[in-house]
Amino acid sequence: MTLDHRQQHLHALRAGLSLIIAPIEYLVDLPAEVVHWFSESMSSRQQLQEENARLHSQNLLMQARSLKNADLEAENRRLRGLLGSSLKVADRVLIAELYNVDLDPYKHLIRINKTARHGVFVDQPLMDAFGIMGQVIKVLPSHSTVRLITDPGHSIPVQVSRNGLRTIATGTGQINRISLPYLPNNADIRKGDRLVTSGLGEIYPPGYPVATVTDVKRTPDRAFAQISAEPTAHLNRSREVLLVFSGQHIKNMHHSVSKKKRKGKNK
Fold first, then answer.
1. 234: nearest Cα among 69, 81, 119
2. Which of 238, 230, 181, 188 is closest to 209 using CA atoms?
3. Neighbours of 234 (CB within 10 A)
4. What is the pLDDT of residues 96-116, one digit of tens each?
5. Spatial distance between the Cα atoms of 148 and 162, rounded to a whole number of angstroms
6. How would residue 63 be classed by pLDDT, with cut points 50, 70 and 90?
7. 3-state secondary structure of 160
């Protein structure tokens, strides 16, 4: 060993033996290396699957938030439209939200989330940012019911804004059509005329948009013309609405309250 250390006689032999042993050592270590590689591969695959699942969940969450943001943006646009409309309204208004619709096809009734606690009263007018929708017919502790102008049992006094011609518009049971059944054949009304509230009847204050005339038929053997109009309000789309408090309504309410007080004192 001393001679080998000094003179390196066995160096060539050791080099040869290492060349022979190296493949054997590789083959011996190969199963362990394969197991280690497979373990790392499975671990990486599991991590990738978990990461993929996490990203998928985040994507769904972001999509849901995006939809919610889009809904909030649409709601903000509707509210801005209502506020813009209320600035044009001379009377005091209250914003309400529609939360239920009567499914009876022969009745056009909706429910709103405002009640007597908010000052709502029977016969109070309701409108959206585009025109008159209807009037309150019932006030309950939990909600108020509104009859739309297209309900077959509803009538509203209107006038033609072009010439002031007054008449009555009635509901037809169709959400996009009202009728003017009481105008004679020679009445000065034509397609495209805008109808507004006349103020008669002391329910709807004057000057609010109601409908636009869409069809006028005059038949010689009929005393009255057949006239149809399309409501300007978005009756089947509006969700936020305005309850109108006109000066006449407030005056009538004060008169009714005073009358009840007088009756109570007389008793």
1. 81
2. 230
3. 15
4. 999 888 867 788 999 999 999
5. 25
6. low
7. strand
Tokens of 215: 């069809």
What tens digit of pLDDT does each residue of 6-42 get? Answer: 555 555 555 555 656 656 665 666 666 666 666 666 6
Q: Alpha-carbon distance 125 to 127, whole Å?
A: 7
Distance CA(126)–CA(246), nearest Å, equals 11
Distance CA 255, CA 261 (A): 10
Label residue 136 exposed, middle or buried (CB < 10 Å: 0-12, 13-18, 19+): buried
116 CB neighbour count, 10 Å cutoff: 12
Query: Which residue from 107, 182, 104 is spatially nearest to 148, judged by alpha carbons?
Result: 107
Collapsing DSSP states into helix, strand and coil, what is residue 131? Answer: coil
Q: Under 8 Å CB-to-CB from 240, ≥6 apart: which residues?
A: 75, 78, 79, 82, 95, 96, 97, 98, 128
With residues binned 3-state (H G I as helix, E B as strand, rest as coil), the percentages for the chain, rounded to 5, are: 40, 30, 30
Q: Which residues contact 238 (CB under 8 A, 6 or more apart)?
A: 78, 98, 128, 129, 130, 133
Q: Is the pLDDT of residue 48 over 70?
A: yes
* CA atoms of 246 and 206, how far apart (whole Å): 10
94: CB partners within 8 A, 6+ apart: 114, 118, 119, 120, 242, 243, 245
pTM above threshold 0.70:
no
Within 10 Å of residue 205's Cβ, how many Cβ atoms? Answer: 20
Length of the chain counted residue by residue: 267
